[in-house]
Amino acid sequence: xxxxxxxxxxxxxxxxxxxxxxxxxxxxxxxxxxxxxxxxxxxxxxxxxxxxxxxxxxxxxxxxxxxxxxxxxxxxxxxxxxxxxxxxxxxxxxxxxxxxxxxxxxxxxxxxxxxxxxxxxxxxxxxxxxxxxxxxxxxxxxxxxxxxxxxxxxxxxxxxxxxxxxxxxxxxxxxxxxxxxxxxxxxxxxxxxxxxxxxxxxxxxxxxxxxxxxxxxxxxxxxxxxxxxxxxxxxxxxxxxxxxxxxxxxxxxxxxxxxxxxxxxxxxxxxxxxxxxxxxxxxxxxxxxxxxxxxxxxxxxxxxxxxxxxxxxxxxxxxxxxxxxxxxxxxxxxxxxxxxxxxxxxxxxxxxxxxxxxxxxxxxxxxxxxxxxxxxxxxxxxxxxxxxxxxxxxxxxxxxxxxxxxxxxxxxxxxxxxxxxxxxxxxxxxxxxxxxxxxxxxxxxxxxxxxxxxxxxxxxxxxxxxxxxxxxxxxxxxxxxxxxxxxxxxxxxxxxxxxxxxxxxxxxxxxxxxxxxxxxxxxxxxxxxxxxxxxxxxxxxxxxxxxxxxxxxxxxxxxxxxxxxxxxxxxxxxxxxxxxxxxxxxxxxxxxxxxxxxxxxxxxxxxxxxxxxxxxxxxxxxxxxxxxxxxxxxxxxxxxxxxxxx
Length: 646
What we know:
Blueprint: H1 6-16, E1 27-33, E2 41-42, H2 50-56, E3 62-68, H3 90-99, E4 101-102, H4 116-131, E5 135-136, H5 141-158, H6 162-171, H7 205-219, H8 229-259, H9 268-271, E6 272-277, H10 289-297, E7 303-305, H11 308-311, H12 320-328, E8 336-341, E9 350-355, H13 362-376, H14 386-396, H15 406-417, H16 426-438, H17 460-474, E10 483-484, H18 492-501, H19 512-516, E11 538-542, H20 554-570, E12 577-582, E13 586-588, E14 603-607, E15 611-612, H21 617-620, E16 623-625, E17 628-635, E18 642-645
Parallel strand pairs: 10-15
Antiparallel strand pairs: 1-2, 1-3, 4-5, 6-8, 7-9, 8-9, 11-14, 12-17, 13-16, 17-18
């Protein structure tokens, strides 16, 4: 069989067709592949035997003959005598297929599981197709998807943070910008963290290094050498991510070094600047009129803490450039000195002005400036480090007989050192300041110590009775093998009512939340499981064999129902709107055999050691009843709100 050539097969096929004849000028090519429409195909020679195909790849099973015919020639010719060109072998086909290319495969947009990340994947495939970035024909689709998914993971992680990298690149030369190709709108807004009700995404240096390493692995592959501009942009994106990860590590190291300092990072003596504006003007610009009136009425060397809202006539807050121009070209009708102190961060500069004499000697300038500086020293904020606060606590809290709450220590430290750092617990620290100012030791600063907690034995009778009921449920049927067929409790409220009915009157009954949190958590590895006490062996479980199905025409059915309602509202005097529906069937079986309740996805309360289950579908049911419901809808005249009547 395998000695037969492709030409023999073609002749046999041609002989079976009575209306088909082989012409002299026919040019026949053979295509073999694993599947009928597979892109991975080979073109052997007509005189090549089938054994060569089997030795090359035994999975090749689809053969297709393509005939190019000149209709003007009608002479018949034996195909074996047809002149052949250069002999083609399996090796030559492999060499030619290595140079052929194919675009990356797209994901099905009509799939029910098509997500935003899949949409970004398709956008990347479209961008690669535009740039001619294709993969070798011999590469499988799974490997291609792996490479494209690596690029998708990078852009998916950066979605919402690319603007931050671009902003850092404008201020820091070590941070490289993201290529413009990946700033397109097709790569933005797909990973919407607000829609997911999540926190704003933050960039971690470890994750960025992983993504940059994945991009470097792609651009170093040999097949990317023909990608041109797309490969160059991928390389620049990898360099940008690697540079930003280095920037984050350096910023983190610098912040840790600042936190272990035993002095403020920015001290007033090193970052305060004094400027003398001795020149005065007779014509004051309108933007300086309010400030000029205040300074003209002030006494000499009486300082003024500058406030942009009070001392300017601008209706809107000034930006950084307007604020800088305002202070640079400041000229008043009286000479003033300006002290500027910038503590760093986003706090902004603190500006203090005071009026001076028109003509001053050098000694007067130095002496008066120092005096004013000592007065305003308490107005200039300083931000202390963590190490400074730790040193204060360790110095004054090591006495064994003294126990000072941490909040009181923080307030004492802030008041004594003029630390302007953010407060950890603003409510408690404000109450402590009020107690200090009022000199009243009876003021309660922390209300938590007044709550001794609930006594542990308040609901012991209730939970003891509940434990007895659970034991009876578990031991009721020894043949169940820890399988419950029907939950005894419909809800937590029903559970409380059943237990309370078996207790004496005036017994303390807990609330629903107390009973609920006494259950065993379904998943002990989640944060919510910390609330559960596992006091009673109960869990919320779903009965097995409960499935929900969907249909591809759900949207159209909902639209038809919507249009029907609108039509009925518009022509309500002439329309009777009826909704008829067959509800879920109710199975019934033989007496004494447990069948499914038919409740879909409803969690029921069951003992922790038991499984909630019922008979299989082909064993339990001997028949079923299908209840039907008919609803007649009436539409109100005023608000056009449908109401249902059964």
